[in-house]
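Quick check before the chapter quiz. The format below is the same one you will see on the exam, so make sure you can read both the input and the output lines.
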Amino acid sequence: MKHMLSLTAHELMKLYARSELTPFELFELQLAFARKIEPRINSFLSLRSVVDEEVGKVPYKNADNLLSSVPVSVKDILATKDFTTTAGSKILEGYLPPYDATVVSILKETNNFIVGKTNLDEFAMGSSTENSGYYPTLNPWDTTRVPGGSSGGGASSVAALQAFVGLGTDTGGSVRQPASFCGVFGFRPTYGMLSRFGLIAYASSLDQVGIFTRDVLDIAYAMNTLSKPDPLDATCIATGDIDFVCFIEGNTNTEGLRLGVISGLMNEQVIDAEVLELCEESLRILAGAGVEIVSVELPFIDYLLPCYYILTSAEASSNLARYDGIRYGLGVDEAPRRNLKEQYYEVRGVGFGQEVKRRILLGTYVLSAGYAEKYYNQARQLRKIIVDSIDEIFGEVDFLFAPTSPTPAFKLGEKLDDPVKMWASDVCVVLANLANIPSISVPGWLNKEALPVGIQFMGRRGEDARLLAFARAYEVSASLRFRVPPMVEEALNNFEY
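Here is the expected output.
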């Protein structure tokens, strides 16, 4: 029974439908293994201790292609009223929200089991999960390496068989890059396609809930479940009338589709030679499936990272101004009483980590008098050019292609003291967020060091179902199948339950 933990979610639900397994049995098994392997990888900031019988003993019923009765992990930046929600920061240590994020509420309504809250770079600021205010998460393929970030705990939890599906957030690749590092699928929908209510803000114009799974079909089930209108979120564009599963199953033909390869992200000056080789192998598979491969140029490609970091830091400077230790989160003893300025200095000095402070300072600088026009407004104008240019390119091609990350997972501590080097890890993924288009990271193969390498497909704004259908077609053409990391497989084989 324990090897059921390595299935996909839709395979698991078939077992329920045939009465070969009950949700309660599976939830107890899942939680026991998640807790057993957790000390070796640190995927979670809070992990459930027991299975709630009211959740576990609800009979499985599913006739609508929904994700149901599936163990799910949730990034600790989404509000949950039954788990503390810290955003990976000491400044929110112990904070228990009085409400659930909309996506969490929907998961509960469909009887999914929330295993726990996953670790992240503090306030989603980072590319390695080393900037967590608590401890780093380790990559289950090689525990000397990072799992990516900021949603590293979510990717690690799905790869390490601690959950079948993970919810993360993607502001500049924070779902797709860790998906690539951990050998799972990572989907960033069109902005607003999933409700953002209850998501603790980092950069509000780019933050988007994303999904980790073990295959594309599981993403479709999750999108069917979660992509619903939400009156609590003014940015939500979901209509709830798309059956992503049926769309995928009815649109598997790739003959004649045009795939634009972003040339500026496919050279050895930007990308590791081995990653580039694996990308080229993926393109050969696609060409063999009838896809026309064309090269596309992005004239602004050298400015993607500066544009992204100026805009996100500016928004973070504003969004994080609310954390003062007075209304919630970290407080500091009041003896003797201080003035408000001293309270701010002490609480924010202790509560925020170095990366968060760095971005607040940068954001405050680019918004300040005399510099807003020079930096912030220029970045806003560039973002508009990026959006228009991508729309024009999609007039010529159906999808875009790029590596997910310029390198496989790097060593713990390798980039921690060099923020510019760390930021460069995002060079392939920030385009989708700036252009507000859906993007998916698909695991490719293992490199010579047995580390996963991911490739990335991007689609037109709002055409999430079409992008998933294309990714599914590639998954079938490449004969991709979820691989369990060797360390996890060994732990599962030795697991007594």
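If your answer matched, good. The two ends are 9 Å apart (CA to CA).
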